Amino acid sequence: GVKTYTCTVCKETKTEAIAALGHVDADKDNKCDRCGEKLGEDPKPTYSDFTDLDPNGWYHDGVNYMIENGMMNGVGDGMFEPNGSVTRAMLVTILYRQAGSPKVTGVGQKEALHFTEKLIASMAWHHKANSGEKGWGDQWQSALWAAQGAEAAWFLWDKLSEQTRNLVLKMLIHEADRFIGYQVPYYQDKEGRIVTPGDTKAEENAWNSNILTIACDMLPRHPHFQQWFEKNRELQISAYARPSDLKRHETVDGVILSEILQGSNMNEDGTVVNHNRIHPDYMVAFMHSATNVLLD
């Protein structure tokens, strides 16, 4: 900076340079205490920075992972709300940060929305609920595909045309209704006998539950809501159930484990068998169950 002197007699002025004092950041908040200039990136929060996080909480490992990897940084005022709900906006933010927070896509928002709606509408239109028996649907994994299409539509629901919404809803309802009265499959039965050798039903039950979760979320007043909800609950509980869970009397989502489970899909040690071997890919298919939690 500079300092200016003015003569009280002749009014002549003179200036001289003032040596810079330099930035000071005594409180380590990445802002200069003198001028307020930002000095760097905001400090990354840690688990202990949040006043509502219990060091021994059941959520500790998961929440700590999200904080350490920069995917979540709380809701403000030193709060994290570990028992709160994850909104669609939060989910998008998490996925964006997980992808490395890319700053340039090369595609404008309007163009991206137009292209995305075309993909959603095309997928839904080709489902047999909209195009008849020549379309896809009613097959292995088709409920998963429909769920993913409906989830994409739900994120953009207010921006989609009425025609696209109707196509999506018909596809969604058709695939969800397939599971009314559905007999949930198991790898082992109640007596421990292997029902489907070398082929756990863990991942199938997990991904089939996705269509029922999104159906319940999007259509809470639909006449089939209760049937969807009950079958969704059974699929999710059974997906990664262990043999010992059949003897547990805890209540989960309003049902007793020992009463709702008709078998198990995961070994007692946490492994699952598929393609006739312990298969890591099918162990991490638990991500389909995690998707349900985020959507709810």
Describe this entry's structure for a reader:
The longest helix has 17 residues. The protein contains eleven helices and eight strands. It is elongated. It has a two-stranded antiparallel sheet with strand order 1-2. The protein has a two-stranded antiparallel ribbon with strand order 3-6. The chain has a two-stranded antiparallel ribbon with strand order 4-5.
Structure keywords:
41% helix; mainly alpha; two-stranded antiparallel sheet; two-stranded antiparallel ribbon; 296 residues; 11 helices
Tally of individual helices = 11
How much of the sequence lies in strands comes to: 5-15%
Shape: elongated
Low-confidence segments, given as residue ranges, are none
Largest sheet: 2 strands, antiparallel
> For this entry, what is the oligomeric state of its chains?
single chain
Count of individual beta strands: 8
Overall pLDDT metric: 89
Layout of helices and strands, plus pairs?
Blueprint (H helix, E strand, L loop, with lengths): L1 E5 L6 E5 L42 H9 L19 H11 L10 H17 L2 H4 L10 H14 L6 H16 L10 E2 L12 H17 L6 H15 L11 E2 L2 E2 H4 L2 E2 L8 E2 L2 E2 L1 H4 L3 H9 L1
Antiparallel strand pairs: 1-2, 3-6, 4-5, 7-8
Helix pairs in contact: 3-5, 3-6, 5-6, 5-7, 6-7, 7-8, 7-11
